[in-house]
């Protein structure tokens, strides 16, 4: 009996690679940048496929290939997921507080910045009789 190609192992490994490299795309949108649920969903799909492929390979080795590759691919996928999670949920969140950051209620020093059209706008132009609200958003750079 000729052994079949275990496509679930390969699909699971490719889903792991897609989960890691798609973060650059998903980080462009606030809904997936603040919490990477799309990438975590891809990891879940990858682990389900890898698990099913491993079960096929070990329960029916005469019919399906992939005991060695499946074990190595799953170990690599787990390591990649661990590094991805460590980097995203621990390292990135270790940004120190800035001692020189403006406090709530503190007057801002005058500044000029380009708006969305490229025109330079100063803070004094934006202040109304009631003041101005400044929102500092740490964007994607």
Essential attributes:
141 residues; 53% helix; two-stranded antiparallel sheet
Mind explaining what this structure looks like?
This protein has 141 residues and is mainly alpha-helical. It has a domain at 7-94. 53% of the residues lie in helices and 4% in strands. The protein has helices at 7-21, 23-26, 30-33, 37-59, 67-91, 123-126, and strands spanning 112-114, 120-122. Helix 4 (37-59) packs antiparallel against helix 5 (67-91). The radius of gyration is 25 Å and the shape is elongated.
Q: Helices and strands: which structural class?
A: mainly alpha
Computed Rg: 25 Å
Distance between the termini: 55 Å
Percentage of β-strand residues: under 5%
Put simply, the count of helices is 6
Shape field: elongated
Q: Would you tell me the overall average pLDDT?
A: 87
**Main β-sheet, spatial strand arrangement:** 1-2
Largest sheet: 2 strands, antiparallel
Number of distinct beta strands: 2
What fraction, in percent, of the residue positions are helical?
A: 40-55%
Brief digest:
The protein is mostly helical and 141 residues long. The protein has six helices and two strands.
List the SSEs and their pairings.
Layout: H1 7-21, H2 23-26, H3 30-33, H4 37-59, H5 67-91, E1 112-114, E2 120-122, H6 123-126
Antiparallel strand pairs: 1-2
Helix pairs in contact: 1-4, 1-5, 4-5
